[in-house]
Amino acid sequence: MANWYARLLYTATILALIVVVMGAWVRLSDAGLGCPDWPGCYGSLIVPETEAHVAEEHQALLERPLETGKAWKEMIHRYAASTLGFIVIFIALFAWLNRRKPDQPVAAPLFLLGLVIFQGLLGMWTVTLLVKPVIVVAHLLGGMGTLALCFWLVLEARRHTSDRISSGSRRAPALAVAGVIVLVFQIALGGWTSSNYAALACPDLPTCHGQWWPDDANFSEGFVLWRGLGVDYEFGVLDAPSRVAIHFTHRIGAIVTLLFLAYISMFYWRRGTTGASRQASVIVFSMLTLQFILGLSVVWFGLPLALASAHNGVAALLLLSMVNLNHQVSLEQAA
User: Known catalytic residue: 67?
Assistant: First the structure.
C-alpha cells in the first residue's frame, strides 16, 4: 500500500507541474475565457463543434463568440486539473486510513486536499469574474502551492523509504525559508504582470523606454488589487503608464530574487555537510540562471508563446528546487 501512496504522489507532482504550465499556456494564448461558463463549455462538458451545436438554453453565452481552438485549450486544462483533483482525493484518503502509522503524514495530505478544492473555486472565479487579475494571481499561487506541497510529500515519502533519519520534528533554516518567500513574491509579481498584459510594457533592455527609472510609471494605479465586479479584464484595462509600473517592478523583483537566491545557493553549497544538500544548491543555481535568461529572452524576442510558457514552467521548477533545498538542509539539521 505504501508503494501505491508513493506512486500517487509522484503522479500528482508531475500532473501538477503539467497543469501549472498548461495554465500559463492558456492564459498567454488569451484562452482564459475560451469557455465563458464553468465547469462546462457553453453548457457542455465537451467543446461544441460550432455555435449551432450550443444548446438553446445556453445561447446567451454566445455573446462571447465560440472559438473552438481557445475553448479546447481551456477544457484540456480543466480536464487535467480535474484528474489531479481526483488523485489528491485518493492521497488524502490513503493518509487518513493509515493515520495510525508513525511515518504516515496526515495533516499535509488533508491540507493538500483543501488547497485543491479551493483551487477549483479559484478556477471558477477566474471565469465568472472575467479573468480579474487578483483572482488569476491567486489561482497561479494556488497551483504553485499545490505543486510544492505534492513535491514535499514525495521527498518525505522517499525519506521514510530510505530510512535516512528517524521521524522527528524538523525545521528548515530561516534563510532557506526566506528564499522561498522571496521567490513566491516574485512569482506573484510575474502573474500580476501577465494578467495585466504588461509583459511588453518595457520593450527594451536593460532600460525601460530608454530610461533606467521610467518617469511616466504610475505605480499607484498599477497595483490596485480590486476594481469592483463586472469588469472584463481580457486584454487588460490599464493605461500604458500603469503597465510600465507593473513591468518595471517585476524587473526589480527579478534582480532582487536573482541576487538573494544566488547567495542562498552559494551559502548552502559551502556549508553543506552532505552531497545531497550541495547538489540541491547547484540545482537551485542552475534553475535560477535559466529562469533569468528566459526572462530576458521573453522581452528581447517580443513575448513568443513558447518562451513565455517556458518562463512560467521554469519558475515552477525553481520553486521545486528551493523546496528540495529546504528539505535537504532540514534533514542535515535533524541528523
Answer: no
Closest Cα partner for 78 from 31, 19, 16? 19
Q: From the candidates 57, 63, 74, 332, give the one annotated as an active-site residue.
A: 74
First to last CA, the chain: 28
* Burial of 244: CB neighbours in 10 Å, binned 0-12, 13-18, 19+: buried
Looking at the DSSP bridge assignments, the partners of residue 334 are none
Say how many C-beta atoms besides its own lie within 10 A of residue 261's C-beta. Answer: 25
SS3 readout for 159-193: HHHHCCCCCCCCCCCHHHHHHHHHHHHHHHHHHHH
Mean pLDDT of 106-135: 96
Q: What is the pLDDT of residue 76?
A: 97
Average pLDDT over residues 291-316: 97
Rounded CA separation 331/159 (Å): 9
Query: Helix or strand or coil: residue 41?
Result: strand
Torsion sign (Cα): 286, 292, 297, 303: positive
Tell me the domain boundaries of the chain: 1-164, 172-335
Decide if 244 contacts 193 (C-beta within 8 A): no
